[in-house]
Amino acid sequence: MPAIAAHDVTDRLAELARFTGRGAGVTRLVYDEAWCAAHRWLASEARAMGLAATADWAGNLYLHDPAVKPGHAAPPVLMVGSHLDSVKHGGRLDGAYGTIAGLLVAHASRGMAGLPVVGFVSSEEEGSRFHGGMMGARSMLGMVDERELDTVADREGITWRDALEDARARGCAAALPRAPFAPLFRPAIELELHIEQGPVLEAEGLALAIVDRIAGYRHWTAWIEGEARHAGTTPMRLRHDALAAAGEMILAAEHAAGEAGEPAVATVGFARPSPGLFNVVPGTCELWLECRHVRGDDLEALADAVTRRWREVAQRRGVRLGLEEGPGQPPTALSAALADAATDLAREMRLAHRRMASGAGHDTTVFAQAGVPTLMAFVPSRAGVSHSPDEATDDDHLVTGVQFLAALTRRLAEHTPR
Predict the structure, then answer these.
(1) Which of 51, 53, 321, 344 is positioned for an S-S bond with 43, CB 3.0–4.6 A?
(2) What is the mean pLDDT of residues 389-411?
(3) First-residue to last-residue Cα distance in the chain
């Protein structure tokens, strides 16, 4: 296997970060102009390295040996990669790091004995434009119902189908096939390299984490309906303030997660009161709630505690509460056998490492739930910062992670029967 040099990693990460919308950090929403430019650049890089770059109908990109043909007759493959989209004003590494790793490992593995290695670039993972639930990974695995193309829409009302038409016109997606949507490749193993997005590895002075499970989450959209009244003439004791009730609910979620203990978390990431004026008591408020935990029973207990407290707040304050649950994910165990193999390799390479769970969701979750043997590896995040323009990881850690992934890929590909 050819060596992967430091500049192979760092230069390409810097180049990929140039494809962004306006403002601080990186904003690359699925199918937007920056996303399409990044998609075309990655395909060009792959072809310049002697790889084929094959896009599917959803804009997922596969980087592979030209001798490995996609489609029904394709052999089982080892897939390695991550996602191309970002959150708004996020960092330059989330998703992008695993994407560049997939490109480099696929190139280094070309012509190797054993399972063919295919780098993947999933079109969407973050949910920052569409709330479709891991649309990229699900479409890669043939887990999308055609009706979703017309029911999933962004905040402007643009449907998945219409957004895809724009991407297709820019050369960033293949033609829409007849349903059901069959996958182009059959994954025998899936690997994803990622920054930790938390502070543990840096705090413990470690270079690597072997991730053996991924937290689950549940999402709700809440609508709080009070009474919009003149703010100057309505006494405090007679108000039914939707925003004040929302504030108490936000704190109730925080307290419930704190009482549950780590690694439980509960977050309200969006609030929209109305009418939003100085002189009007807010009559309505919309909230977006998320609860996460690495164990299923504890996730259910946390969700029950938060929603119960929210109903109690609504009743006490005399407001109406509507809760609509959106797409979620159960906690997911990754392959114990792959985790053991990765741990053995980390010891052999004398890398300071540990096993850990991921509190964040990833494309790997979908592969694992589909029955594919999967594994993730983390490298440290500086100060634990992610989803921020301040997201950073030392170059040495970035390079070490890709080199470890390349060595692990080779070991697994050579010892896994086709």
Answers:
(1) 53
(2) 98
(3) 19
